[in-house]
Model the fold of this input.
Amino acid sequence: MTSVPHSSSVASLEDKNKVPTKGQSLWVDAWKRLRRNRAALLGLFIVGFYIFLAIFAPIVAPRTYDKQVPSENNSVPAWLTTVFPNMIPKGQPNGYVTVNNNFPLGADNLGRDILSRLIYGTRISLFVAFIGPIVSIAVGLLVGLAAGYLGGIVDNLLMRFVDIMYAFPTLLLIILLMTFFRTSIASPQPGTMAFTLGQLDSATGGMLFIFVGIGLTSWMQMARLVRGQVLAVREKEFVLAANALGASTRKIVFSHILPNILGPLIVAETLTIPAYISYEAFLSFIGLGVNQPTPSWGSMISDGSRTIMSYPYQVLFPALALSILVFAFNFLGDGLRDALDPRMRGVE
Amino acid sequence: MARYIARRFLWLFLVLFVISIITFILMRSVPGGPFTREKALPAATIAILNQKYNLDATLLEQYASYVGDIFVPRIFSEKIKPSTALDYLMVVKLPFLGKDTTLRWVNFGPTFKSRTRSVNDIFRENLPVSFKIGLASIVVALIIGVPLGIIAALNRNTAVDYVSMGMAIAGVSVPVIVVAPLLQYFIGVPLKLATWQQNGGVENLFLPAIALGLGSAALLARLTRASLLQVLNEDYIRTARAKGLSERRVIALHALKNSMIPVITVLGPLFAALVTGTFVVETVFGIPGMGRYFVTSIQGRDYPVIMGTILLYAVFLVLCNLLVDLSYAWLDPRIRFD
Done:
């Protein structure tokens, strides 16, 4: 859908006018196509902006995310009361909202600055967006490569296992795994692996187990894709040639097959990033996400939706932040797919 | 065909077996038990509770008895007192064997959180609610998604296409935890549909169905568009046009049916996921459905409920996928089952 304004014939004419001095690599070519896709560029720009916010959160955010001002809880700036006429300021009949301009986007029920929490919240969503695919690729690649290249009974067993895992409700499995991790490391002895993992988890604000949980439940799609790609590539002549030259299995798989199947994998993972972001938001929504007071948009939406009738802005802002980021990744993913594999344009 | 279906049912049992084992091992490895309280219960009380619920047996015995209660039909020769431990979904009277003789089958066990309810009670009372909402949301998804995709495909690369696909990306992008509270505030409050009314009827389904259906609608729209575009390039479409059929007939009779295959494919898992309940929408709108049990049972270590909900979902999913596969043969006559 995010197709390029130029038709392909114009593009090929442009290419013909330039005398090709040397072959263009897949990636240079893809970048050229991506640059012509305005929707994808917008997505890229928004993602870049969020990355900037995440890195420079301590500088950009007006306050820290955990500073509480109890006397000013649920206070809103004046402009919000005009956006939401239902929020009647104190002093008017039935008024209940404290109006002051100390917080640009208002304060939450503990008197914390919502804008600052939003800015710090980009960190967790982006971490999930980039590390979720890595975990999923790591597991999926191993299973898929093994099944695809070794074939036979290994292939059969692994793929039947993948089929069975598909019948598992993903969210239930994540919840079960998260509960398992969280409580297993709650009070272990120092020196054990559980203790180290627990330390690592609390050092990351509870993110470690989110990655593991999401990764362990989303590798199946990747494994199927990798297997299919490997099956297609391993019959090609260059694999036969490498085999004839006496290359080891490991060498063939990792230096000959893997680079040739990377494109579709990256596209597939980019298109799955929105799902990872939503998973994290969901986990935080049900209270299994990051530890308090680390801000996550999901837990902000969850907290806000309890008081949505009185203070709707506490849901609206994190909801907007979350939707815009997912929107951007969707555009970017579509654009990357068109750019890396023009044959797949418009095909899901 | 019959052999194919039989094979698929065998597969269902294998799936249920593996899933129940994984779930059982995983849930019993989670520290803490169903009777772990902030203020610890006396050891004697816990011992009695464990004995009552058969939790002091070995894990293997517990698993075997759990599976046995579900799959093995039992014959009772006398009336049994209603209890949470002996609550069977299927009761068949066998008058020729004695006045009170009954064949009872499928017992998912008691729930640890209530003295008067069994897992079967949860299925009986909460599943229909979730089922209605899931069904309504699928209807919403189909009514919005498929026409949107068709319109976009027929107006390929025009403003109509871009606008509808832009809407579809927006729909895919907004997670349900965002849609549900916002719908509730901006539409539910003015229309007085913000929360589930016990007495109410169909109007209660309206907002939850939209909240759940929008994302699926967007997905269906994108699939329909892509698939219809592909089908329109097929030879049999050219043949239909060459025969001189009107464009409307070509699209409606020849293209659309075949292009529904990918749509039906995602509809299967979607249906299974939606009708077994969804936590977020049920929490936001206060709906007494199945969804919350998926979450609360794990947090409360309510073992029979965990197993019951996961198995229920798996059964739904495998059956939906079977229906999907069978519908292929109707949608595309070239597809046959060996």
